[in-house]
Amino acid sequence: MAHVPIRSAGQYTSKFSVGYLSRLLAGVPESDIDLRWKREYAAILSGAKPTVDDLEALVANYDARDAERTDPAAIRWIDDPFLAEEFALRYTPATPVNPLARILGFGERVAAEIARTTGGL
User: Fold this and answer.
1) Pairwise CA distance, residues 1 & 18, whole Å
2) What is the C-alpha to C-alpha distance for residues 14 and 100, in angstroms, rounded to an integer?
């Protein structure tokens, strides 16, 4: 099994937008939300477009604490895709990721659940 945490800029935007909001919706206290989720969500809100360097830094340090971060330039990146055609990625759609559609879909599900459980606001 392989974990491919970041597959595109669109997937990054969707993942961190919906992921951060999901944590808030689940009642996770702000102080308990991992700094990575906060940092990436803030970057998305600022309108900053992630560069290849930004995404490489995130992937290179995906599970690292701030004090343990590695300079992506020090990593030997190998351009040898291992995902052959016979592999089916569980969380990657066949079409390009549309972050706005995913975020709006999440918002629609949240709104419907709030309306269902409270009778509306």
Assistant:
1) 24
2) 8
Tell whether 80 is covered by a domain: no
DSSP code at position 26: T
Taking only the tens of pLDDT, the chain with its 121 residues reads: 566 778 889 999 999 999 999 999 999 999 999 988 999 999 999 999 999 989 988 988 888 787 788 888 888 877 776 665 666 666 666 778 899 999 999 999 999 999 999 988 7
In a domain, 53, yes or no: yes
What count of Cα atoms within 13 Å lies in the side-chain half-sphere of residue 25? Answer: 13
Residues spanned by the domain of 50: 9-75+94-118
Phi–psi pair at 83, nearest 5 degrees: -90, 85
Q: How many structural domains compose the chain?
A: 1
